[in-house]
Amino acid sequence: MRSNGINRDTVASSPTFQDIADEVYDILHGRIWAGHNILGFDCALIQKAFAHIGRPAPKPKGTIDSLALLEQRFGRRAGNMKMDTLANYFGLGRQEHRSLADVRLNLEVLKNCATVLFLESSLPDMGPLSNEMQEELNQLDSAVGFLEPDQVFIPSIDASLVPLYRGSQRIKLLHDLKLCCRHMKLRFGINMKSDFFDYYGRPKLNIIADASPNLCKVLDACDDIASKLSVDSGSKSEWKPVVIRQYDYPAVRLHIPASGDIRIYATEIYKKEPSGTEQRLVFTKLDSSELSTLFKQGSFMDAFFSLDPYDYQQNASIRLVAKKLVIHSN
């Protein structure tokens, strides 16, 4: 109702999905499916809808996801890459959130993007990019594929068991869900006393940040699905919720991993100046004391992280692995 004005009266006389399932199947099966963010949204909903009525779902001959295509070729120059954001960028009007109107808008957005890319490809070679331009492009690339919590359609969250090694399995969240949370308040920085070490002798570094209500909703949904799958798979490990609720405000633990068997950080770490300029910090060695001076309690950061379910030594949960952290300067 809030997003597109549909209420109970609107659909009171509409058929159920089971009533039209045959027609939907005939339209979709063996065809090429195209749309904006269909791999992360529509495809999952189609699978769930047919599973709900006990019917096999249609299978596409191929898929064209304009979100993935535009992220790769157009970049995030238009913002968060939502359909309404792209439409506003090109002056096409607002998204109506009606099927046919949205399809037509999707086509117009693609045509406008294609025109811009064609014109850019026709320009003469301007030579190498400046360091500032290249750094900006690198920052955009590192953010591609991350969703803000309010962009996640919670009913589409799912998990499955995938092979690990020697016949074992691990839980994988659908589409390798990756999240971006901006302006997170750091509750606890690097705790030098409680660090412990991995197989290579590297400290396992963690920071704890406050979690917004929208982030909690997404993580709680992931917890529910993954923990149930863990029990169904026969695991005897104790499942620990990913959201920490022992403080006066919900929080999450972000893990800063090292890369491979060498002692450098796998997480990209940036410092953001009050002007908005981001500068990537370069570390020549893995030094937790150096990080502790950066991640100070009460400071703010933008966090880009993946969700990695694990089951190890009778403990199971979802680890939030930091891919990129942007620390705000005071």
Describe the SSE topology.
Layout: H1 8-11, H2 17-28, E1 32-35, H3 38-52, E2 62-65, H4 66-73, H5 83-89, H6 99-122, H7 131-143, E3 159-163, E4 169-173, E5 178-188, E6 196-197, E7 203-210, H8 213-232, E8 238-239, E9 243-244, E10 251-256, E11 268-272, E12 278-280, H9 288-292, E13 300-312, E14 315-328
Parallel strand pairs: 1-2, 8-14, 10-14, 11-14
Antiparallel strand pairs: 3-4, 5-7, 5-13, 6-7, 7-10, 9-10, 11-12, 13-14
Task: Please give a structural write-up.
- The chain has helices at 8-11, 17-28, 38-52, 66-73, 83-89, 99-122, 131-143, 213-232, 288-292; strands spanning 32-35, 62-65, 159-163, 169-173, 178-188, 196-197, 203-210, 238-239, 243-244, 251-256, 268-272, 278-280, 300-312, 315-328.
- The chain has 330 residues and is an alpha/beta fold.
- A five-stranded mixed barrel has the order 5-7-10-14-13. It has a two-stranded parallel sheet with strand order 1-2.
Structural class: alpha/beta
Strand content: 25-35%
Low-confidence runs of at least 5 consecutive residues? 198-202
Cα separation of the termini: 40 Å
Would you tell me the overall average pLDDT?
A: 81
Number of strands: 14
What general outline do the C-alpha atoms trace? globular
Tally of separate helices: 9
Radius of gyration, in angstroms, nearest whole number: 23 Å
Largest sheet: 5 strands, mixed, barrel
